[in-house]
Specification:
By secondary structure, this protein is α/β, with parallel strands linked by helices. The chain contains three helices and three strands, in the order H-E-H-E-H-E.
Amino acid sequence: MLSHTLTERWTAFRRLPHLARPAGRAYGICMTAGHDAAALALYLREEGASALLIPDMPIDEAVEQDAAVRFDSALHGLVD
C-alpha cells in the first residue's frame, strides 16, 4: 500500500501533460531531492515507463548529451 504522501505525488505527476501517459517511454531524472526523484522513478515504473536517475548532472548538460546521442531509444523527457 502506498503512503499518503506518495499517493499525493503520483496524483500530481498524472496532472502533468508530459507524465500523464508515460508507458513505453524512457525518462532521465535530474533531480537533486532524493525523495522526489525516488517517488517519480517509482511512478514511472508503475506506469510502464523507464527511469534513469542522473542526479549529479545539470539539466543543461543532460539535454546536450541527449541531443548528441538521439536515436530510437533516446530519452522521452528530462525532468529537473
